[in-house]
Structures are given as structure tokens and as C-alpha cells.
From TrEMBL:
CDD domains: ADK. This is adenylate kinase. The keyword Transferase applies. It comes from Aegilops tauschii subsp. strangulata. Catalyzes the reversible transfer of the terminal phosphate group between ATP and AMP. Plays an important role in cellular energy homeostasis and in adenine nucleotide metabolism. It catalyses: AMP + ATP = 2 ADP. Keywords: Kinase, Nucleotide-binding, Transferase. It comes from the Eukaryota.
Amino acid sequence: SACPTPHIATGDLVRDELASTGPDAVQLKEIVNQGKLVSDEIIINLLSKRLKKGEEKGESGFILDGFPRTVNQAEILDGVTDIDMVVNLKLREDIIVQKCLGRRICGQCGKNFNLACIDVKAENGLPPIYMSPLLPPNNCMSKLLTRDDDTEEVVRNRLRIYNEMSQPVEDFYQKQGKVLEFDLPGGIPESWPKLLDVLNLEDQQEMKLAAA
Ligand code: AMP
């Protein structure tokens, strides 16, 4: 029986862990709330547990989100599985900051929303960017939570650490020819169908290559 391909975000695994009563929870929370990276050892441990659980359920593939974030993590991943494709979702840093600050989660139903209204005019040859907010229904409105690490200071720290530690992961996969660069054209409603289109195109190209 076909098992849907799971979306596995290591950030979610980390948040589950720091909400637990485990021995590492307090220390983890401190690292995450400063916008620092959790050690490769802890991340690999959390991810392996999740992948093993999936295998037992019959999952035969996965979409990883937020992993690998260091070249070491990428090397470890390469040692245990074959990665088909890497999608690099790109957005200007000033907009990433606004989007993170607008992010809300409903404490009851768990759905994600975004209150930020991004409306950047075209300038210096850069295209305009418009992203409407993803507003919650009335039911969720009074239950909205903000991630502790979505303050401007911590978001900027996360971006700084991204540029230092995670940017080299792009080169790692570029050398393997696996990277699909995707400039986000707008909010999720505009981006999603376009992303599916290019992923399908990539698929067809791979099939052509395989047939050749
Ligand atoms: P995210 O939800 O992807 O923003 O992740 C939240 C936080 O979890 C990050 O700021 C890190 O502290 C930690 N984290 C998530 N994924 C990783 C990873 N692959 N390597 C190291 N730390 C991670």
C-alpha cells in the first residue's frame, strides 16, 4: 500500500523535544532561543529516530525541511541514503525577517498563519514583491502563538548563522548537480503551483535522461 511521502522538518523534531521532559530539553531551549544550531549529534539522533519510525510504517521516501544545515550533516546524510533533489527556496533577507516576525501558530489546531503584509516596490532593477498575509479564521484568532525564536534579534542571528554554516551546504549539492534554485515569486498561494510546475519539469527531464 502506498504510504504518502512525509514532510520531516528537523525544527519540528527539535521543538517536540524541547517541549518534552527529556534531560536535554532545558539546554536545547537555550540554544534554539538564541538562534544557534543544535549539535549535529543531537540533530542526527532525532532525525534517525524519526526515519526509523517511518520505515517501520512503510514510508519509502521523505522530504526533509531544514536539514542538512551543515556540510557535516550533508556528508552524514550522503553516507546513509541517496538524495534525489535539493530545492533552495530563495527570498530576500529583509522579507524573510518580516515573514518570521509575522508568523503565528494556532495553539489549538496547530495550523500556521502569517500576519505580515509584504509590499515591496520595484527598485534598482529588483522586481516588486507582494505577499498577502495568510490570516487565521476567527476561531484561531484568540489562540495565536509566536515562536520564542521569532524576535528580530534572534531571526537576524539565525540568518547570520545560516550564511556562515548552511550556505556551504548549497555548494556541496551544487557540485553534485542536485540543486533546484527557486526564487519565491510571492506568497504561498502564488508560489505553490509554480513550485509544483518546476518540480514536474525536473521529473520529466530526469525521465528523459533515464530513457536516453
Ligand atoms: P526551524 O524550525 O527550521 O527554524 O528550526 C528551529 C531551530 O531548531 C533552529 O534555529 C535550530 O536551533 C534547530 N535546528 C533545526 N534544524 C536543525 C539542523 N538541521 N541543525 C541544527 N539545528 C537545527
